[in-house]
Amino acid sequence: AHAQLTIHGVVRDAKTGATxxxxxxxIENTTRGTISNADGAYSLRVPTLPATVVFRFIGxxxxxxxxxxQTDPRIHVSLEPVTIQxxxxxxxxxxxxxxxxxxxxxxxxxxxxxxxxxxxxxxNRFAIENDTGxxxxxxxxxxxxxxxxxxxxxxxxxxxxxxxxxxDEALPAAMFVANLYEDDVEISGYTFFxxxxxxxxxxxxxxxxxxxxxxxxxxYDISVEPRTKLTVGFAGTVAVLSEDYVLLEVDLRPGDAFLxxxxxxxxxxxxxxxxxxxxxxxWLPVDYRSRTILKIGAGRLLYLPPxxxxxxxxxxxxxxxxxxxxxLYESDREFVVDSTAILAEDxxxxxxxxxxxxxxxxxxxxxxxxxxTLDKAFKPGGLFASQVQFGEDAxxxxxxxxxxxxxxxxxxLRYNRVDGLRMGGAPSVSIAxxxxxxxxxxxxxxxxxxxxxxxxxxxASFDRLTLGGSYTETVAPNYTSEVRPVLENSVRVLLGGSxxxxxxxSKGWTAFANVGLDPVPARFHxxxxxxxxxxxxxxxDYDLVGESTLQPANPAINEGRLGAIVLGISAGEPPPAxxxxxxxRIKLEVERAASGFLGSDFEYTRLSAVGDWQLPTxxxxxxxxxxxDVRVTASTHNGPLPSQRLSIIDTSDGxxxxxxxxxxxxxxxxxxxxxxxxxxxxxxxxx
Length: 687
Known about the structure:
Blueprint: E1 5-13, E2 24-27, E3 33-35, E4 41-46, E5 51-56, E6 63-67, E7 77-79, H1 96-114, E8 117-130, E9 133-147, E10 151-161, E11 184-187, E12 190-193, H2 200-203, E13 204-214, E14 217-226, E15 234-241, E16 246-254, E17 264-278, E18 282-285, E19 287-296, E20 307-320, E21 335-342, H3 347-353, H4 359-367, H5 374-377, H6 392-401, E22 405-416, E23 420-431, E24 436-445, E25 450-462, E26 465-477, H7 486-494, E27 503-517, E28 522-534, E29 560-571, E30 585-593, E31 604-616, E32 627-638, E33 647-649, E34 651-652, E35 662-663, E36 670-672, E37 675-683
Parallel strand pairs: 1-7, 10-21, 34-35
Antiparallel strand pairs: 1-4, 2-3, 2-5, 5-6, 8-9, 8-20, 9-10, 11-12, 13-14, 14-15, 15-16, 16-17, 17-18, 17-19, 19-20, 22-23, 23-24, 24-25, 25-26, 26-27, 27-28, 28-29, 29-30, 30-31, 31-32, 32-37, 33-36
């Protein structure tokens, strides 16, 4: 009774001799099983003998084979087709498919109540192809656990990959498998209505295509398609077992709402899955087969070869409603690696856990070596391909960045009505081991006919702590803008537009410390500043297009030394200028200047706050749902505030009005010592 045997063979159609891919193969009275591969080949470990192995395929009569100690492990099986019988169609006002699917949905609701947890052995294989053939293969095996209230966890027990994949991180198996029987199916950022969702009858059109048999059991073939092109749902077919009203298999693809913006030009996905009954009348997936075709590019300018990914997965040895180890949920990590995992070289174990490789996959394992890297397989083409760093070129840059000492630098350029043309360079030095970075800028202003410079440095070798400081002698803007970059303003002024900023001369030092807060994803910062502020006058009205725009005078400031301490806390990241995706962040800051503190000639307290929030509204199941974006900015103060510390509300008079700005007749911000602005905008980007 303790003997075991691994059987293998090929499953064929008894009449035509054609191989049958994805034949459902199981050991009778157990939860162990597998499927045949694309060539009809299978491999299955039979743990105890004697045993009966059952071969099932819709449209064929089930075959059974008794396996004993004396059985030849090579078992080839031919399945007899069952004559397809189409019921007589009676034209009525009712759609029989709707009644069938209503019963499927009701049956699934009862099954959900029966399933609290399970444990299963999962196997997954990815075969990655370009336009010439397979370029990489990755396989993994896990013990997968699922609990209704705590979700899924996996323990990786085996991994194998072709020699050209050089990453060390093990990958889970079940994480990459969609259960197409679920209410909601997550795929590439979209949340699809499952075909058995409680609201499926409101979101899908179902039609009865015909009937087949598996042995003497009737199987309904039902077509599926979303009711509208806006519905995030599937199209294809499902097979329903009569009387039990459960899904036997599905063949689905995303509907028309599965859309991606450039540079993705094509994203095709087909998915097939089979189900089997387990303890307590629960039906669960036994496999998953998909093909993804992805084409990325920007016309003839830049493109990648088409990327094709074939995926095949199997689930075997389900244990239903078992106790799941609490230790798996002590961290948020969804998978861990078993230190005693099976090695890829242990060939004696491979056939017991994997679906046999197809012919092309066997050849790929034999022929692909470490030099056939993915960057070579998917080398960019097009007019700009030579400008893209990819693979070995990017690796060389990465190696340069990891050197103990790295020298760098970049030119700087800007234009405004005070500096005129300000041009210079920004050299930098970084020391990797100490987390030290030193940089700065040296520039010459053609209108002021003087040099400006800055030197700064920071060290980030401490845990979540960064310390730094700077010394500056330059002309600086009086205020910062949430939406107007300095470079964009320079271009606008050169083309005859109004200068958006006001300026003052600043000479002094700043020291700061930034601390990351744990476990809250926020940052706290403190800074000490001591700068001598002096007024500067407008120097030029010049522009490149000869508009002779009369720039506004640069206003005088309250001159003197400003010494202050700044405390702030922030969470989230601000959206980039002209952003279309919105953000969620908050930033609070208090600035205190006291007479005599750090030599300060001013005494005031200034508070400011800015917050962005994004609320999904319509089409929430899409990768980019419609959103309501809200921004609130506010500032106030106590004590006499110098004019160079006024706050602004951003404005725009151009063809575009970035979110968070007011429309205005003149391109100048609204300044004030106390401000409050609330912006809201609904974004219909995916309609």
